[in-house]
Amino acid sequence: MPKLWLITPVYLDTVAFGILRQRIRDEVAEHGWLAELDVQFVVVDDTAGLDPDIEDLDAHGDVTVIVPPFNLGHQRAIVYALRALAGSMADDDYVVTMDADGEDAPEDVPRLLDELRQKGSHRGVVVALRTSRQETVTFKLFYAAFRVLFLVLTGATVRSGNFAAYHGWVARGVLRHPSFDVCYSATLTSLDLPVTGIPCARAARYAGKSRMSLVKLVRHGLSMLMPYLDRIAIRALILFSAIVTACLALGTAVVAIKIGTHHAIPGWATTTLLGLAISSLVAVGNFVILFAVYTQSRGMALSRLEEEEHGRA
Description:
Elements (H helix, E strand, L loop, with lengths): L2 E8 L3 H16 L8 E8 L17 E4 L7 H12 L8 E4 L11 H11 L5 E6 L6 H18 L9 E4 H6 L10 H7 L4 E6 L13 H12 L3 H32 L6 H46 L1
Parallel strand pairs: 1-2, 1-4, 2-3, 5-7
Antiparallel strand pairs: 4-6, 5-6
Helix pairs in contact: 8-9
């Protein structure tokens, strides 16, 4: 029978993980076909070995602890573990990634896996779409503003996080994509994979407190934009082209009035033309920088892939 791999990063949250583990085992045992799977929990110690309580998890035969060399953050910690274990996964294994604090509800795990099983393809991905959050008003306001900004820059909406399910085929192949080095959740939805969303309310923490600071939140938001760099570059090109076109059109009109007629040129026209000229120079400069970053990232991705293939050979 296929295995069920549950990957979760843990940062000083072993108490919460203990509760999560037991509740997931209870949910799986009561859910028909899931009860026949070999359940394996993979804990990524994101303290890089500084949490002494992690050693207690080794007493469980169904728990594997992976210790990265330094703190990676919850998203990159998941990718680190998946790449480390990809060789042990079969294409038809089931993989679930989730947070360890209980905010990703164990009751939703069977719902995601049922949807994944119905797809009948190893390429499918099922993500949890957040319908509600138990957060402060300030966090909700900043999150709403970020969603609007994300939509304007990329043309896509962001409603999912680490909570996702897919087959071992995705972990073995797709997770090698270099964009996963930057952001796990956004890369899952940015690639050409059949992604299905399941509405899931965000639950409350089992124990402890969140360590997500404002700096970490901003850093996380910026990293979510990186997998969509190609879409941002295209939208930026359209915007910059419109600014340059408007500048040329207004400049042509001003010169035509000055040379071909005896009418005085309004003061607002020259001021507007100067503003558009400056905006055009800034737009062209920004586009060159963005285009250079985009092409460089694509080139590095291909170079790295070739190095991996030569290493295997």
